[in-house]
């Protein structure tokens, strides 16, 4: 693949979150500071929101890598499209406790006993909830109730909630007053600016051994930012395709025109076939609504979907490279030799 062609040790722009590539933009540093502040307080809720692909999960994994295991017992939940009782089971399971066949009262008792055991060991329990925008009000209230597990002087469980901006709508709904009173810090993670986006790209390339090959001029970086809007995941998607094109076309420098060509290719791949949705607008609208409902109910599965897409892209790259190799051999075959081969067949 293009990693070998450019002398890189690994793919620098894979879609799955990887704390190894963590880049501390101004927004990400501030969000991490909020999370670390929250940990130092040892109580209450910390809320971090951000757009799709802004890097919230990478923040969490970077935080988990920093957590002192001799002081904090952490559980991370990413599947949040659950009702309150199933969410409770998920919490219990994430802390490594048995949950099958237990009633709600039994689950709460097991969790409380576990939290008190952690406290007796001089440790704290931390619960991290990803994709929090999928939590309904009843489930959020269930999580708030878990914060009632306390000793005389401290809380036994602290919770971090990370989600898309719409989670703030849930948080500010009339029935969430008690939860809002327990939020000790809240931060919205916005996109990177143009300068940070360039630094982000160069950071990820340098992490896998980049020595300036390939090169990107000012126009190329401007085009990358114009497409991605400073969203890390969109930047990764574009840059992966750019490097693949560079490998296939044997390029070592990219201009604005090169980036624009890849952007057009990506845009065309997501265009509807000609005439789609025109003959049956009602059916198309229904399908669109179905897709929106599906997206709403599958937030917890996004992580697996992203990783599956990454794997599919790798398989696609291999297929393209194989076809390219065959085409190069055909083009390199002398015409005379090809003609002689045809005469022999006759």
Features:
single chain, alpha/beta, Rossmann fold, Helicase, Ruva Protein, domain 3, 7 strands, about 10% strand, elongated, ATP hydrolysis activity, AAA_22, XrtA-assoc_ATPase-like, AAA family ATPase
What series of H and E elements makes up the topology? HHEHEHHEHEHHEHEHHEHHHH
Largest sheet: 5 strands, parallel
- Strand share of the residues? 5-15%
CATH superfamily of the domain at 26-189: P-loop containing nucleotide triphosphate hydrolases
pLDDT average, as an integer? 82
Question: Based on helices, strands and strand pairing, what is the structural class?
Answer: alpha/beta
InterPro entries: AAA+_ATPase, AAA_22, ExeA_AAA_ATPase_DNA-bind, P-loop_NTPase, XrtA-assoc_ATPase-like
Domain AAA+ ATPase: 42-205
Protein name: AAA family ATPase
GO molecular function, one term: ATP hydrolysis activity
Task: Describe this entry's structure for a reader.
Among the domains are: 26-189, Rossmann fold; 192-267, Orthogonal Bundle (Helicase, Ruva Protein, domain 3), CATH 1.10.8. Helix content is 56%, strand content 10%. It contains 15 helices and 7 strands. Strand 3 (124-129), helix 6 (137-146) and strand 4 (157-163) form a beta-alpha-beta unit. Residues 277-303 and 335-346 have low confidence and may be disordered.
